[in-house]
What does this fold into?
Amino acid sequence: MVKKFNIHSRSQIDFIDITLEILKSVEESNTINGFCYIFIPHTTASVTINENADPDVVFDIKKALEKIVPFEENYKHLEGNSAAHIKASLMGSSEIIFIESGKLVLGTWQGIYFCEFDGPRTRNVLIKIT
Amino acid sequence: MVKKFNIHSRSQIDFIDITLEILKSVEESNTINGFCYIFIPHTTASVTINENADPDVVFDIKKALEKIVPFEENYKHLEGNSAAHIKASLMGSSEIIFIESGKLVLGTWQGIYFCEFDGPRTRNVLIKIT
Amino acid sequence: MVKKFNIHSRSQIDFIDITLEILKSVEESNTINGFCYIFIPHTTASVTINENADPDVVFDIKKALEKIVPFEENYKHLEGNSAAHIKASLMGSSEIIFIESGKLVLGTWQGIYFCEFDGPRTRNVLIKIT
It folds into this structure.
């Protein structure tokens, strides 16, 4: 079954740590050994796994993405948010994480981030656990 | 079982909407609840999920990728298509999409694109449904 | 069950071909038809699939990534390795490969690379086969 939860981004580019929500879903599923799939059903948002100890890491990732794909750049798409679409495709719309002994298998420094590129908005995160 | 279909790219960089072909494969599999895995068995092509309403979005994504990874750049690889290899790794070789009630779980604006970076060529797309 | 193996990167940015190790794990699992999931439990390393015939391809990918995300760039993160975190998120922490007739389904030119962005270090690669 697909589980869905809402998320509220607070700025145009916003990385939100969803590790605890994902952990909770895994616990509720009572899965001992399997996979947790995360899917973002939006074309201007993504999911990524990166450090959640020092918030400066996320600050630097957001700044670097903005430099690689500037918001203003003579894009053709009239809605004006092409940079958000490009960032979303570069970062990807899904992640898979192993579940062992009822726990997510993540490295010491790894957290799961919802990546907003065209906020602020209310968004959905989809999860499927097997 | 792995299903394979052919695709013909028409230019060096070409994004081809394969959503309908993937939908057809899901329907033919009679899967009610599961996953659709897409894998591109090439090193200069990718798959991505992004907007398929306004074609200008794809135009802007292709142009941005060309700016981030220019085709001409004193590459060492003698075949001359290193830019295509780099784009392929940045965009990724696989996607996973949930299947619920016999349907692909995609957001309103999401379509699935085969991304050619070294065309025109005949290419394969591999699908596995569980 | 999650299988783990160690890898030793030899420089700051280092792509290591792990295709043979993955093939061996698939053989040992005696899986005829299924999936091989690869997950990198680090925030400054990744996994990617690309050409393993001409080593110049990997040389060009590493050089391009260094140009897109320079190591020195007034980053805020005090550890000084933000560029490695950014590259890791751009390249992704997992790959999925189909298994058919007991073999990995890879294209003719495809190999699997562990991507080090903050080496040299000893790293882990996690594999799960279903």
User: Anything to note?
Assistant: The two ends of chain A are 9 Å apart (CA to CA).
